[in-house]
Amino acid sequence: MTAREYHEATKHTVERLRAQAYGLDWGNMPNPFRHYEGVPVVDLPADIPAPGIPALDVLNGVAGTPEASDGAIFLSQLFFYSASISATKVVPSSGYRYALRVNPSSGNLHPTEFHFATRGLRGWEDGLYHYRASSHMAELRARGDFNTLLDCSGAPLVIVLTSIAWREAWKYRQRAYRYCLHDIGHAWQAVELAARALGCEARVRTIFNDAQVMDTLRPAEDEWPMLLMSITGDGLPLEPPRSEWLGGEPNALSDETVPYPLIDAVHAATCRPKPASGSAGGDSFAVVVRRRRSALDFEGGERTIARTQLHTLLACAAQPFSWDLDGRFVHLYAYVNRVDGVEPGLYRWRPGVEGLESLKGGDQRLIAAGLSLQQSLAGNSCVTFSMIAALDQLWERYGDRGYRFAHFEAGAIGHRFYLAAEAMGFQSTGIGAFFDDQVHRYLDIEPSEGQVVYHFASGYAVPDLRLSA
Q1: What does the pLDDT look like over 202-220, one tens digit per residue?
Q2: For the chain, how long is the longest CA-to-CA vector?
Q3: Do residues 293 and 455 lie in contact, with contact meaning Cβ atoms separated by under 8 Å?
Q4: With 449 labelled, which of 302, 347, 374, 463 sits at a CA distance of 20 to 30 A?
Q5: Are the beta carbons of 190 and 148 closer than 8 angstroms?
Q6: For residue 292, which of 415, 109, 122, 110 has the smallest C-alpha distance?
Q7: Which tens digits make up the pLDDT trace of 105-151?
Q8: Shortest CA distance to 460 belongs to which of 428, 430, 432?
Q9: b/e for 6-37, b at 16 or more Cβ within 10 A?
């Protein structure tokens, strides 16, 4: 099975949906939380500083101010704002409660697990850990230096994102692998943006020896490593290096040094870093991340978003990625439904190209919903996107592994949309189900030009009365 064959075999059509209708086996639903039992469990502090930097600043590449005094606080901040439980929902008919997390997931099934290796964090034991999301704890799976084995840069913190396909396949069957890859893209951005808000930066490795990482990490057999992230920067509280100061007195260069204030002044100016551009303002990163939810549907009335807000979404999507690949492979088609200053219609947006290119005029609501498996939220949104990936280009350059990258990028763009929309006062949701080839026909593109890998909608969410926190 090649990635190309898999993609074709898992395309949605009306005929396939009718032939493959099935019911969910609720008694066999996978546990959404992985625990590694029988190892030391380390509490992550609950009382931690909240990053005050505005969310839109973080999305635009601005780093926050380091605040963590030790490794435990930093790790608690990082995972609290990228992978932890953020709320619960209650099913009115049964009283059943289930958790929501800050990182979104298809069907709230959460196939992604977070493993991490530390070295030299102040007050934190070097070793290999697994993040226990159910209780915001770290499970110590091995002691020692595993960073060098996982990451060539020698970063103090290396995070490995793994995926458990069965969690998604339980509901979505063969198409589930697509959703697992989307979720990795969302989780990647969740961690990267949280790290940036804490004064750090992330670098991502998509190309690595899977078997070697499995041997090093020793996860459960149903977990597959998908992405490696190196976290560096001033925000990481590190143990000071061991040193011995020997002093030494500088010799006098002349009897008298003549002062030149202009030289002193220009040197002082060159010591100062470039000032950050004006802040975008708005709610803090901490507030936005914890408040973000996936909309179940959108208000379908007259309420609109502004043209500037649409362009802010696109500007966030255009920000550089931290991965080890050359270029970007996803561009967007926008079904504009209700955007002030933009006529309803179909538009194309490409990274690096300014503005939206108008392709078709007229009401797109029925089209957007119909292409998204008749899901009304795609038509009730203010704007819905088809994410089109250059799969042929990826396969030619990276082989079957390139299939991962298309979905990683789409998920990463979607996560940026989630946070940007929330920061501006509206909401979003990812849509993994669509009629693939019907999308291509409507957009008038050949599969060799690109294929749809994700749909995404933004607008004003209808209230979800099941939320309890």
Answers
A1: 999 999 999 999 999 999 9
A2: 94
A3: no
A4: 374
A5: no
A6: 415
A7: 999 999 999 999 999 999 999 999 999 999 999 999 999 999 988 87
A8: 428
A9: ebeebbbeeeeeeeeeeeeeeeeebebebebe
Contact in structure between 255 and 217 (CB atoms under 8 Å): no
Which residues lie closer than 8 Å to 345 by C-beta, 6 or more apart?
Answer: 336, 358, 359, 360, 361, 362, 364
Write the CB contacts of 317 (distance below 8 Å, at least 6 apart in sequence): 332, 351, 413, 416, 417
Separation of alpha carbons 288 and 74, rounded Å: 19
Report residue 328 as tokens. 């970007």
Q: Per residue in 387-406, is it b (16+ CB within 10 Å) or e — as a string?
A: bbbbbbbbbeebeeebbbbb
CB 114 within 8 A of CB 105: no
Residue of 121, 117, 82 lying closest to 101 (CA atoms): 82
Q: Tell me the CA distances in angstroms from 417 to 267, 275, 317, 385, one per residue in order.
A: 42, 27, 7, 11
Sign of torsion, CA 28 34 36 38?
negative
Give tens-digit pLDDT for 56-86. Answer: 999 999 999 998 999 999 999 999 999 999 9
pLDDT at 94 over 90: no
Q: What one-letter code names the amino acid at 156?
A: P
Question: Which amino acid type is present at position 207?
Answer: I
Report the Cα–Cα distance between both ends of the chain, in Å, rounded: 44
- Report the interhelical angle of 176-197 vs 165-172 (nearest 10°): 130
pTM score of the predicted model: 0.93
Q: Which two tokens stand for residue 30?
A: 């996978």
Average pLDDT over residues 149-170: 90
- Nearest CA among 327, 382, 319, 385 for reference residue 356: 385
2-31 confidence digits (pLDDT tens): 999 999 999 999 989 888 888 899 999 999
